[in-house]
Amino acid sequence: MLITHDTRCALDAVVDLVNTAPEDDTPDGLANVAALHDFVGKHEISDVGTLSELDLSAVRKIRGRFAGIFAAPDAHSAAVLINELVAAAGTTPRLTDHDGYDWHVHYFAPGASVADHLAADCGMALAFFVVAGEQERLRRCEAPDCRRAFVDLSRNRSRRYCDSRTCGNRLHVAAYRARRKEAAG
Q1: Cα 67 from Cα 23, distance rounded (Å)
Q2: Can you say whether the dihedral through the CA atoms of 170, 171, 172, 176 is positive or negative?
Q3: Looking only at Cα atoms, what is the longest distance across the chain?
Q4: Under 8 Å between Cβ of 17 and 39
Q5: Angstrom distances, CA of residue 61 to CA of 15, 20, 168, 169
Q6: DSSP string spanning 36-97?
Q7: How far apart are CA 92 and CA 143, in angstroms?
Q8: Bridge-based pairing state of the strands 138-140 and 149-151
Q9: Could you tell me if 112 and 89 are in contact, meaning their C-beta atoms sit under 8 angstroms apart?
Q10: pLDDT tens for residues 120-153?
């Protein structure tokens, strides 16, 4: 599956957005407008204007809707959720070549809010996976104490953890220690 630069940026943004949601003892990664501003800056989201509490509320709402896409049991369910997000954002596809990037497509309407911008561009990035029959690549970490979202871009679709260096290693070390303890009897 060919993933263009702008699609990759949108995928990174949607994964990071979903992973800002508070879970168990993890605080909300979008606790305030300043955190939203940092998120927008980190992902170089353009044309969003001055951010407000209304923007923060709207982004939190779509964050939950994106989380539903990662939890969707099948492509049809994911497609319904993506279609709702993208339609509500009022997409207006247009070609652009800003900030030193070659030609790419923006799906958000000019002057769109940050929430509509994310819903349109990130929703379309996820739509490409459904269209390509790759919806199963939109995953949650299989570590029992982690449910972070990620996109499995491995060649053989075998990635199981959000980060193999943390979640994956932690589980492998725990299994190794359990085997050694059992062998020691």
Answers
A1: 12
A2: positive
A3: 67
A4: yes
A5: 15, 12, 30, 33
A6: HHHHHHHTT--S--S--HHHHHHHHHHHHHHHHHHH-SSHHHHHHHHHHHHHHTT---EEE-
A7: 39
A8: antiparallel
A9: yes
A10: 999 999 999 999 999 999 999 988 888 899 999 9
Which residue has 């369910």 as its token pair?
Answer: 77
Query: Could you tell me whether strands 94-96 and 149-151 are parallel, antiparallel, or unpaired per DSSP bridges?
Result: unpaired
C-alpha–C-alpha distance, residues 136 and 152, integer Å: 8
Report the C-alpha gap between 72 and 29 in whole angstroms. Answer: 23
Tokens of 150: 């990620």
The two tokens of residue 161 are 């953890």
| Residue 119 · residue 86 · CB < 8 Å | yes
Q: Between the ranges 31-40, 85-94, 139-148, where is the mean pLDDT highest? A: 31-40
